[in-house]
Amino acid sequence: MVFLLISLVVLHLLSLAMLVIATLEKTWWVWTESEVSNLWHYCMYDNATEAWLCSATNESDWLQSIQALMVLSVVFSSISFLVFLGQLFTMSRGSLFYITGLCQAFAGFTDFAACLIFTFHRKEIFDDSRVLNKGHFGYCFILAWLCVPLLLVSGVLYIHLRKKQ
Length: 165
Hints:
With about 160 residues, the protein is an alpha+beta fold. The protein is built from four helices and five strands; from the N terminus they run H-E-E-E-E-H-H-E-H. Strands 4-3-2-1-5 form a five-stranded antiparallel sheet.
């Protein structure tokens, strides 16, 4: 039981860290090695100054919904971890971690919705940008997709986990 508890906490913290990186890093869409875009900025690498020059992305409705869903996912997962810690020390023996599991599952569903929207509406998001055929998905987008099953599995495990002495 202790092994399951420790592994579940490690899974939760790993998925939370991946989710924060996916939300805040700058490579959701990559045109070239020196030209990338994320949920918040469009960035180009300037060889002369050896620095990234970033500007705000265009404010499309789809992009704003993805931003909101990713932030909600981070918030739900963080709340889930805090609620788990609280329940771990205050819950009576034999109780289930329903609230923790539901918050973690909601984090997975909001992450899933954000990834789906970006997958199917990237043309509308990058409407004034370069041709999308010359670009590809970045590692943050892949991290966001990897978080979906991790969040959902940990949510289900929390729901089935019983508190023992």
